[in-house]
Amino acid sequence: MTVRNDELAAQFEEMADLLEAQNVEYKPVAYRRAAENIREYPENVAHLSQESQSAVERIDRVGEAIAEKIVEYVETGTIAELEELRDELPVDMAGITSVEGVGPKTVGTLYEALDVRTLDDLETAAREANIRDVKGFGPKTEENILANIDFARESRQRQLLGESVPLSTDITAYLSDTGPVDRCDVAGSLRRWRSTIGDIDVLVASADAPKVVEAFTDWPDADEVIEAGTSKASVRSNGVRVDLRVVVPDEFGAALQYFTGSRDHNIAIRNRAIDRGLKINEYGVFDITDVDDPDAGQRVGERIAGKTEADVYETLDLPLIPAELREARGEIEAAATDKLPELISVDDIRGDLHLHTEWSDGRNSIEEMVAGAEERGYEYLCITDHASGPGMVGGVGLSDDELEEQLAVIRETGDDAAIEVFAGVETNIDENGSVSTSDAILEQLDCVVASPHFALDGDGTDRLIAAAEHPDVDIIGHPTGRQLNRRSGLDIDVSKLANAAARTETALEINANPHRLDLRGGAVQVAVEMGATVVIDTDAHRPSSYDYVRYGVHTARRGWAEPTDVLTTWNADAVRTFFES
Ligand code: DGT
Ligand code: CA
Ligand code: CA
Ligand code: ZN
């Protein structure tokens, strides 16, 4: 059984939370830093630990004590210290802290004072107004908990796209290598690249379904077999449910179409079939004109398609519709009239315009971030460290003086670089839409990203429009400020914002960080329709995070974006012109 890096990281994060809940200092920060580096490490850390403990100690921020625990976890499946901490504080830490505004310290206090162990306990305590009597809390805490608890409960049932995609790659590679498998694909919301995933749907074409099911339930990463039959099975892996269906090769296309969804897209497709005297289901497309009772079985009438998805759509007089568009947002009408967009792809991307270095909260130097972009074959990038201002805590953001100092360093680095290095900043949008860096600085920079970082509830439309109207602002960063499964972010009238963005030549960001995906696909579709330019940025805090770009690209595809709609597909000169206008 391989231990994945994120599973390993989660152990240290839980330890950090439990220690913080007991008011232990320093250690929580050390564990979280280590966890972050373990999660991002380019090789499998468990494998490294099997080589030697000192191999693990080469990971930044992982010293002897943590390395020992990694070895312990990989060898025994537990960490004794973590087990002790769990015994001391027997609470559903991840569940309770998923309520926005409730951190590990609060969990510790409420456990001691009120024996709160679960989300349900927390809700009861808030409803019965018991929390306000605990030292350090008041009615406002109760209000906040009650306002956010339903969102927390729902979001705990869905997994981030960015966590599910690596898992789905593992399972499809494993099945293709192991079973008698003709074809293997993911379907469902993952194939449509929704930002969160209920479960992972895997589809296999094979003549020997029981053998494939057997291989699947034997998958070393399966932590639990939920159910297993002759042609389907479900397992749980890393907390995610994975559904497998095995079909015969002749029916693979029909099954892939059906199980990709979305449900609403399929309903529209089924109606289009009925209009043509056809019956469509997961087994194929059937001509039922000469059939007395079309409901007599699943495979009635004459079978006219099923082997490939393209065949299935063709029987309905449609071209193959890309999976990201299948959300019943006009894609069938567009396909029928030959108006489907020519969607952007990862290869179209030429650079990144929002990233951080060690000048603010990034992990690497300017040179290292530039080198990482060069390695990817980018033509340009823009350094946008945080400016100080509302929402920036702990001295992370740069003052005007520091930005001026950094500008000189960026210019120097740019002179030696093989690619174009733009100088920028990520400044903060306050409640009124003003930005927190002085105009004298902004004017000297090539590119200004303005982002909301605080007061992230209520309607944000006017605030963001005001920021877009600032003459030096080029990009509105992560416009809603949402964090998936953590907070829903600002409400925005996207067509109003897009209108202002188009008028002021400000780009709206698709922040590709898998915790954000902001703007989301549906909003991108509105923005692009209104003629606004969007920009895919990774918000990278280290070079490996440039890989997030694909989540941004697929989100852009969900928003019907073509390459020309996306600033980071333009060449460096065109980007510079956009900044200057
Ligand atoms: P999820 O898992 O909640 O993120 O969303 P999906 O879209 O992956 O949904 P899931 O896993 O329940 O089912 C996979 C696909 O199978 C779904 O997108 C469409 C199709 N499907 C499932 N049940 C039905 C149904 O009752 N009617 C229709 N038309 N399609 C269905
Ligand atoms: Ca699913
Ligand atoms: Ca499913
Ligand atoms: Zn930001």
Would you write up a description of this structure?
- This protein has 581 residues and is α/β, with parallel strands linked by helices.
- It is built from 25 helices and 17 strands.
- It is globular.
- The structure holds 2'-deoxyguanosine-5'-triphosphate, calcium ion (2 copies) and zinc ion.
- 2'-deoxyguanosine-5'-triphosphate binds at residues 188-189, 194, 197-199, 201, 258-259, 261-263, 266-267.
- Residues 188-189, 194, 197-199, 201, 258-259, 261-263, 266-267 line the site of 2'-deoxyguanosine-5'-triphosphate (DGT).
Number of helices: 25
Structural class: alpha/beta
N-to-C terminal Cα separation, in Å? 56 Å
Percent helix, as a range, is 40-55%
* pLDDT < 50 stretches: none
**Secondary structure tally: strands:** 17
Q: Which outline best applies? A: globular
Q: Provide the residue-averaged pLDDT.
A: 95
The second-level CATH architecture of the largest domain is Alpha-Beta Barrel
Q: Compute the CA-based radius of gyration.
A: 26 Å
Tally of individual domains = 4
Strand content: 5-15%
